[in-house]
Prior knowledge:
Helix content is 33%, strand content 26%. It is of the alpha+beta class. It has 2 domains: 13-173, no CATH class; 179-367, no CATH class. Strands 8, 9, 10, 12, 13, 14 and 15 form a 7-stranded mixed sheet that branches. The protein has a 5-stranded antiparallel sheet with strand order 2-1-3-6-18, covered by helices on one side. It has a two-stranded antiparallel ribbon with strand order 4-5. Strand 1 and strand 2 form a beta hairpin.
Amino acid sequence: MRKRLQLMLGLSDERGTTVIIVGIMIPVFIGLASLAVDVGYCMATRNELQNIADGAALAATGQLGVNYESISTDDLINYDVSGDEETFIKGVAKDVASKNQAGGVGNIIINDNDIEIGKWDTDSRTFTPTLELPNAVRVITRREAGINGPLNTFFAGVFGQNDVGINATATAALTGIDQIAPCELFWPVGISAAWFDYWNETTGNWCDQNIRMYPTGDIEGCAGWHTFESWPSNASKLAQILQDKINGGCSDGYETGDPLVYTGGTVASVFDDMKALWEWGRMLNDGEIDLDTDDATWTTIVVIYGLDDCSNPSGEIPIVGFATIQINQVLEMPDKIINATVKCLDFEEGRGGGGGAYGTMGTIPGLVQ
Length: 369
């Protein structure tokens, strides 16, 4: 009986089996831990490459913005980046990379082919390489065979992986300004986003295109009058605002997303007040309220509102951007016409972007991809 009990106890003893399993799993655990070290090292190095790509793209695009600050609007219309300018812009990106390191390797090199100048489309979020009026730069940084060398692994060599290639991509762009300061918005009119879409689809460029500020309601007058954020939105309120602006009344600061109140329809009863405001503004030539030096015109900033057509806007509509316009002509009876030109490529020095692909651009770039 005792022998039978001892035999049964021996058969149920699993200690030997556990030792065998642990012995098998220890190499597996060691291998996984080793791979984790290599994976972590690769991720850390890629983050370093990403930071270098971000900085290089921002610096190169910033140089593009500096170039635009010194070019007249007339020249910008047909502007192409020259060979020397392309070389210089790429050199700015390379200089940033050369002052940084990734994965223990310093003086990171960027190939010419990995620096592309082009256009960034905010709506489709796509980058197209081109030297024709570009607004963006895309940069790829690498730790790969032939450029900065691949990253040596610590333990993956046991599995036949002695090194690994890593890269990172960044795109920076000059985009529309997304805010204006108090006292910058004097002309109580906005332009529909549909107007910009129309010219972009028709000619690929809305710069220096003419637009009617009055009358409105069609593609030629794809605009509308607003009373800032003040209700009621009617001609009487608009007349009060126009008179207030003539007396130097100051508006608040605004940013994209803020709603303004539009009057809808025609405002013929306050046309004389519109003309009086123009007569006042065009003579200032102060570089702040009137951004030009011509007594015959008034260059100022207006909002762009978010509609997909040119119908007369009514009620609250959000701001989607800002445009610089030159108000050229106010014709009285019987015509009653206000003609203007959108100076959308007047890059504003020292302004950041962050807005959409409409209107006045900033010269301080932002990362978009």
